[in-house]
Amino acid sequence: MAIMAADTDRIQQQKAVRGNFTRKADAKQGVSPLYSATSSRSLTGDEEYIEIIGGKRLEGHVTISGAKNAAVAVIPGALLCEGICTINNLPMIRDVAVLDELMTMLGAVVTCDAENSSMTFDTRGVDCSIVVNELVQSMRASYYFMGAMLGRFGCCDVALPGGCNLGPRPIDQHIKGFQAMGAEIYIDDGVLRARTANGLHGADIYFDVSTVGGTINMMLAAVRAEGTTTLVNANKDPQVVDTANFLNTCGAQVRGAGTDIIKIRGVKRMHGCEYTIIPDPIEAGTFMIAAAGTRGDVYVENVIPAHLEAVSAKLIEMGAKVTEGDDWIRVQAEGELRAAHVKTLPHPGFLTDLQPPISVVLSTAKGTSVVSETIFEARYAYAAELMKMGANIVLEDRIAVIQGVEKLRGATLYATDLRAGAALMVSGLMAEGRTVIKNLEYIDRGYEHFEDKIRALGGDVERKG
Ligand code: EPZ
Fold this sequence. Notes:
UDP-n-acetylglucosamine1-carboxyvinyl-transferase, Chain; 23% strand; 465 residues; 16 helices
């Protein structure tokens, strides 16, 4: 593809910005806990691992942190407001630390109050729309810089996103939407370069698939565009709604988030705000499933029960007892659980991110379960690890047929992606004997104080190495 004029200048400019980064990062206050808490390499250079002695019931109360996938959209969204945004209930995880670095690199002044899960982003001084470095490739959500930069500057150079390997993860729907809003897009050596003559304009955009990232990226791009944008077949995930609420708090006009038609009337300017991220439905679902898997009794607190209806329904179908209040869900299980069929779907269907942990629990449920993964084709990488523990799983394309076995036995396991890592933690808690989990960098990307929370519920878990 053609490289646009002035690109060389822009790369030079980016190098200058990288120089700036060191200075601004040094000037930040209170950031270090975020970075040090999430390293999966020990000081001796040996790889850290988690050791679990399985077979203990999880019992007690666990408080859920802020939603990773909402946080990773809202933080780049702050670039659209030329002001100061204070974001509360942020999970202190590696993906947030990476975004902190990227925002700083762009010229934002970032402060972090890790103890109170809060960060501020002063984006008034941001004057760069280039996000090209290895950090971008370490996470999927860096694609939100495309929408945010296009919305603010009418142009951007953003390295194509990385993230967990779940099979092909195209961004054609994002590109199609940016083009409909008037951007010329070039992909050059792994960098998406977008240009507009005079900024973006509103457009009618129809999504061929229900896409979380595509829907959020179009909202980010459209909030400051000239005119009205209509998104048809929009994704309805809670993180889409949370991002829309954040943007509206900053003065945007987004209507209909949470339905399949979203209308965005472009505004000239957006201001800073204080905003609190929703609780993480995936972390909450993981603890609900772990409670059932260990035949435990856990109050999962600081949640929005409506976000978790598919999980609650499935656990009840399997024989667990689920009760809920305004902001908590209690899961109790004992004895045998029943097999069930699970099909992953966009919200409000059963989340693909919770397919690995529910499959772990189904591996010891009585009978044959059929799990059908409709979102990401490579989401069964954990199954080979589970089979090391004695699980009986037959895979055929996107279908897993799971014949429940009496028990899992401890083994040495390798996390293959973030949600697979969490699922393997659940398997270790359920198994008889000692389980060792490696490749912790995946788990650290998305779960705050995971082992501490499990330990507080009575799980025998320790990070070593
Ligand atoms: C988001 O990924 C989440 N990531 C994922 O969580 C989550 O599993 C996924 O949504 C589905 O809920 C973040 O929020 C950062 P999609 P995303 O666009 O946006 C296809 C985690 O561990 N598609 O909703 O990449 C795509 O291939 C992660 O937290 C296109 O074909 O997912 C998939 O089959 C893993 N073209 C389906 O749509 C496109 O342009 C849904 O993908 C975009 C997507």
